[in-house]
Amino acid sequence: MSLAVRFQGIEKQFGPVRVLHGVSFQLAPGRIYGLLGENGAGMMKILAGYERATAGELYIDERARDFASSRDAEQAGIVLIHQELNLADHLSIVQNMFLGHELKKGLFLDEPAMRDAARARLTDVGLHKHPDTRVRDLIVAEKQLVEIAKAMLREARLLVMDEPTAALTPAETQRLFGLMARLKDAGTTIVYISHKLGEVERVTDEVIVMRDGRFVARAPTGELTRQQMANLMVGREVSDMFPAKPALADDAPVTLRVEQASVPGRAHDVSFSVREGEVFGFAGLVGAGRTELFEALVGLRPLSAGDASS
User: Fold this and answer.
1) What is the tens place of the pLDDT at every residue in 172-198?
2) Is 72 part of a structural domain of the chain?
3) DSSP 83-143
4) Does residue 234 sit in the same domain as residue 270?
5) Which residue range forms the structural domain that includes residue 259?
6) CA neighbours closer than 13 Å in the CB half-sphere of residue 300
7) Average pLDDT along the chain
């Protein structure tokens, strides 16, 4: 069953600090919304029962609601997948997925039914792990998929995803997008919070932009370029904030040279150089060894091979 949401004059204060200022907008059933800008996640925490508004009204299917907890929101069909993982490492995947929502057969837990249901949802999100696997034995990307699979179990009518692809590989991201399309076709409303404007452009029907705790704009995604989305988020031309960087001199001296550096179990045979005046970007997925490599370069952990000089 579909679900419609309306925010009317929502405000939120933490002591003297006001973070939401009379925010009003609606979410129609069966659409995917890209929510951009500051404090959008705060709005969604109010919707999902993790925070309560200081003022204003939240309407679910035109009925005023004030959720006292996330459990209350889940009972109304609203589930938030947090950017910060919310799993118990010492428990198994299936135990995490059903924590607080265990299935019972008489007086006892129905473990076969929970295991079968967990396996089906894990297959949906593309995580091919046994449901009894301990969460502590998973990598970050796999834990993120467990969070998504857990949300699927709640049969959400409205699903909020906060930076869900931050730790996912391209293949896992594509699988998630396919799952989102199927949920949309089934009538589920999805709010997709992300700073990856290419993803927002690709998977959403509409974009809602907030800035400084205020509603700024909404438009069909196809009517906005990525540049326009960015400008709405920051309130001015992004090019004014980040002017073109002058070209690096061809004869700029090398200030750091790394040759065939390795960190046990983390990074292997890495070589690069940085020249004077250069802004050097170093990218990779979570768990790829970026942090550990640079910890070794500054002496916080040993290099097993290679050399760094400046």
Assistant:
1) 888 889 888 988 998 899 999 998 999
2) yes
3) SS----TTSBHHHHHTTT---EETTEE-HHHHHHHHHHHHHHHT----TTSBGGGS-HHHH
4) no
5) 254-309
6) 6
7) 89
Q: Dihedral of the CA atoms 290, 291, 297, 303 (nearest 10)? A: -80
Over pLDDT 70: what percentage of the chain? Answer: 97
Please say whether the beta carbons of 224 and 34 come within 8 A.
no
Is residue 107, in this structure, part of any structural domain at all? no
Q: Which pLDDT value is given to residue 49? A: 94
Spell 4-38 as b/e; 16+ CB within 10 A means b.
bbbbeebebeeeeeebbbebebebebbbbbbbbbe
User: Does residue 129 sit within a domain?
Assistant: no
What amino acid is encoded at 177 in this protein? F
Count of structural domains, the chain: 2
Residue with tokens 């070209």: 247
The model carries a pTM of 0.74
